[in-house]
């Protein structure tokens, strides 16, 4: 197990005292330029990242801080996870600094926080080698994605099981012609999501022709629902890529005069609290963000106990569950 480089390691490499290292990295007086440069070169060579956050803590002798990378503050799924993690992390004695990968690229966000935190948590999609390089040796807990190299740990969600449970549950409630609204993605062309692949696997023959795609928004979901029932009026249940789009589907059903759940059952995918704000309230496949946060913080605690060293990949898995409300 490789230990994180400490200020004592830098002091030994530069042939100076710990206090001199502190003066150099804080650009303080009482140190000549040649010695300062030698210390800074040792920091660079060893990969030492001084924690500005920790230096600013006056009353705590011991602190630990995590950097939370939020994929988008516009999507309530990510903001609800962030809110849950902030509350739970505080209860465990963690300080949390946040950055959004929506407003700047992942590497830049990681670099910005790397000198202030002990590890990273978040939805990150850089390739493993690029991610490890951008994290500058700090451990990373990936959400909803696996890491394959030491230092990259993960809490995955069993999406396939979530789709299986949803299709089975809709059938148990009488659905016979189940359609799906998939995400159109953000690229120039439509690439079917893994959720669509799982849907076709469990919905069976003919299901591929019962899928439409839309933008990942309330408006996009509403338009896609209108297209789906227009092309396939026989549809009696719809599984939607995420809750935002499903909210749009519920709104569109009201505008079209389609009774939900009497005529069509609508099921989202996320389990957002916002689903309670529409009528009928949105049934959803809950990705169980509380379990996601709990498992991520459990991994963070293990890494703290190991002094944030580079450990072999640790993986946890969260199983989705049905969140029954009114729309299905």
Strand content: 15-25%
Q: Average pLDDT, to the nearest integer?
A: 90
How many β-strands, per DSSP? 12
Terminal Cα span: 50 Å
Counting H and I runs of at least 4 residues, what is the number of helices? 12
Domain count: 3
**Compute the gyration radius: what is it?**
24 Å
- Give helix and strand order, one letter per element, not per position: HHHHEHEHEHEEHEHEHEHEEHEE
CATH architecture level-2 label of the largest domain: 3-Layer(aba) Sandwich
Largest sheet, strands/sense/barrel: 6 strands, parallel
Binned, the helix content reads 40-55%
Name the CATH homologous superfamily of the largest domain.
Response regulator
Specify the CATH class of the largest domain.
Answer: Alpha Beta
Trace the largest sheet across and list its strands: 2-1-3-4-5-11
Shape summary: elongated
Helix/strand/pairing category: alpha/beta
Low-confidence region ranges:
52-61
| CATH topology grouping of the largest domain | Rossmann fold
Describe the structure.
The chain is of the alpha/beta class and 328 residues long. It folds into three domains: 7-48, 434 Repressor (Amino-terminal Domain) (Orthogonal Bundle); 65-158 and 289-320, Response regulator (Rossmann fold, 3-Layer(aba) Sandwich), CATH 3.40.50; 159-286, 3-Layer(aba) Sandwich (Rossmann fold). The protein is built from twelve helices and twelve strands. It has a six-stranded parallel beta sheet, with helices on both faces. Strands 7-6-8-9-10-12 form a six-stranded mixed beta sheet, with helices on both faces.
